[in-house]
Amino acid sequence: MKRERGRRPQFGEAGAPQTPTGLDQAADKELVAAALKGDESAYRELLERFRRPVFSLIYRMIGDREQAEDLAQESFVKAFNNLDSYNPKYRFSSWLFKIANNHAIDHLRRAKLSTVSIHGSPHATNPEREEETRIVLEAKDESPEQEIMALELGGEIEEAISRLRPDYRTAVILRHIENRPYEEIAEIMDVPIGTVKTFLHRARAELREALGHLREEP
Amino acid sequence: MKTWNSQGHLSELALERWAARELAGHQLQRLEDHLAQCQACEARSAEWAGLFLALNSLRGVELPASFDDRVLERVRVPVVATAPAPSRLPALARRLRPLAAAAAGLWSVGVVGGGVWLLSRADIPIGLLLGRMLGFAKELALAGTIKLAAAIQVSGIFGWWTETTGTLPGVGLAVIAALVTAASSLAIWTLYRVGFQPSGMDQHA
């Protein structure tokens, strides 16, 4: 199989092959193989699967919705345009999350931030901008009373997570929000599994401490 | 994992693993037995359980629908060349292809060159020459047909033909016609593939 070295057609252009059906049932690696053969719908399915988790990771890492969207976009473009360098020995999700996490960490380094605020970007110059960039909490299907409690607790925990150091934050987000196994978190963060467990243990201890004031209330 | 601390209570790590539902079997049983008897550990376990409840209630964040299109606009879709169909030309015919091309070339040069040379030497009008050539060709074809018929007669093929068509009139004719058609088609196809098949099979899209 040879790949043309010159310019390749963009989505929607003639020359971009279309579409086997049933891609929603395919494994990630099969989608990558189809994408490498020029199947546009395989890219769409990969986006459908990973759009939300990748954005959530970056958003919670940097705490600014607008910049998180840009970084998520950059991450996907970088991953898709370098699919031929993906090693199928590993999970595709690990590879993609690693790219996204590195983008977020680079952003934090450039901005010289280690913690973020869920109340809006630290670079917000006015209240409107702060409102645009804050992390929005969503309650699940619960009664109004439970909803208020969940939002309150959710707000507290989001705030506490945003104050964790970046590697602890990555581990917590991947483990608790994205439900990734320890092995995959280790692949994404490029550290041994034992280190992931240590990160999580220390992060949880910090979070428990940060939420301590809630349990002192009657 | 260290399950107990120095005061004989459950360690923080043990409670964390319990809250994370990472314990099973005997370990889990021992821990829950202790929790049922120890109020201090029970209180700490409630804190850990609350933390995990809060963590696990967090959800992913949605993106606007336009996100996919913005990404895909910047993605270069690979164009993969269609694999060339494997040639079904027999190996011997493939090897003979250059020889056939050379022979065809020599033949063409010989005929055209010979014609030009003859014309220059004989000083005969071209119409007359072509007429004579046609006459010779007719004579040659007639002589060839007569000799071929005689050869067929001598070889006994004609007798076999008569016998076959006599015993199996309809079917025999049909079989012979099919064999002749297949053989001549195969011959034409082979000549075409040997003489005219382009060699650029490994081109890509």
What is the fold's blueprint, element by element?
The complex is a heterodimer of chains A (218) and B (205).
Chain A: H1 28-36, H2 40-62, H3 65-81, H4 92-110, H5 127-133, H6 144-162, H7 166-177, H8 182-189, H9 193-210, H10 212-216
Helix pairs in contact in A: 1-2, 2-3, 2-4, 2-7, 3-4, 4-8, 7-9, 8-9
Chain B: H1 12-19, H2 25-37, H3 39-56, H4 66-73, H5 91-122, H6 126-155, H7 157-167, H8 169-196
Share of residues in strands of chain B? under 5%
Number of strands of chain A: 0
User: Termini of chain B, distance in Å?
Assistant: 61 Å
N- to C-terminal distance of chain A:
68 Å
Q: Which structural class should the secondary elements of chain A be placed in? A: mainly alpha
Order of helices and strands of chain B: HHHHHHHH
How is the main sheet of chain A built? none
Structure characterization notes:
The complex is a heterodimer of chains A (218) and B (205). With 218 residues, chain A is an all-alpha fold. In chain A, 63% of the residues lie in helices and 0% in strands. In chain A, helix 1 crosses helix 2, helix 2 runs antiparallel to helix 3 and helix 8 (182-189) crosses helix 9. Chain B has helices at 12-19, 25-37, 39-56, 66-73, 91-122, 126-155, 157-167, 169-196. At the A-B interface, helix 2, helix 3, helix 6, helix 7 and helix 9 of A face helix 1, helix 3 and helix 4 of B.
Properties at a glance:
heterodimer, A: 218 residues, mainly alpha, disordered N terminus, B: 205 residues, 72% helix
In short:
The complex is a heterodimer of chains A (218) and B (205). Chain A is an all-alpha fold. Helices cover 63% and strands 0% of the residues of chain A.
